[in-house]
Task: structure prediction
Amino acid sequence: MRFDSEQQLDDFLTEPNQADIAFARRLQGDTIILGAGGKMGPTLAARLQRSLQKADRSSKVLAVSRFNSSEVRHELESAGVETVVCDLLDSQQVSALPQMENVLFLAGRKFGSSGDPELTWAMNAVVPAFVAQHFKNSRIVAFSTGNVYPFVSPEQGGCTEFAAPAPRGEYAQSCLGRERVFEYYSKRFKTPCLIFRLNYAVDLRYGVLVDLARQVYQGKPIDLSVPAVNVLWQGDANSYAMRALELCQSPARILNVTGPETVHALEAAEFFARRFQRDLVIERESKGLALLNNAGACHALLGYPEISLNQLMEAVACWVEAGGVSLNKATRFQVTDGKF
Result:
């Protein structure tokens, strides 16, 4: 799995698998993707559109975002995805969006949350109320995060969907707020809904493994405050997200989404050090606890990821070594106090 350009990478990320195409044949109605201009939205929208094309379906995919980048909007439209500019913080603009049977909700705010908490809460808890009311007759997959869970030791394994939330910091608290809003309206309006607790997606331009690889490659000290993580190839995350529409229910269902392995940060850093023939410099030792998901239910319902951890780590190494583009959006997975 080696890519010589962003175009090759995007083509691979958006290539549907057989499960995607089979899902597209069953999908009833059109789909709107809210917050489609972020890290995952463009490839998710394009993958769904390609799935529908291969399934010989004419259903519409509509990508909604502020679209600060006209390039992203152009790329989506070139892929056959329709686009609409909308500020989701404006309830009137949300109310003007067309009704569609299927909603993928990706909007949210993480970084800067400690310095501007009111905006974080507005994006993560107020916007969901606008959306849930407007699309009460749709089915909704709402993206969330494993940050709502308590920190656990890697030896315990990841938290299942039955673990009681224990969010640290205002970002994680506001994400739990987002979940509660969707849960409330799912019960009130009988809206089929699924809470998609994802951590951490990896596109070669960003992700936990990319953070580690770039730090090792550049000879920077590695922060091991958090000893372990879960990761998932973004293409697999895209596939799970669209197919999760068939799992929506009322009351809202919760689904952990990540890879099957617990990835020890030190072992990953040592892999990249060997791969790049670099010395490994450790800045902080592990505090013993980490945010970890158990995605066994996801794998039982939607299948195992197509891209293995070994494939993903090698792809990241090749991309970094070749000077591949970075989004310069560090995951900051080492944060333990919830302040992003």
Summary: Residues 89 and 122 are 7 Å apart (CA to CA). The chain has a mean pLDDT of 94. The longest strand covers residues 139-145.
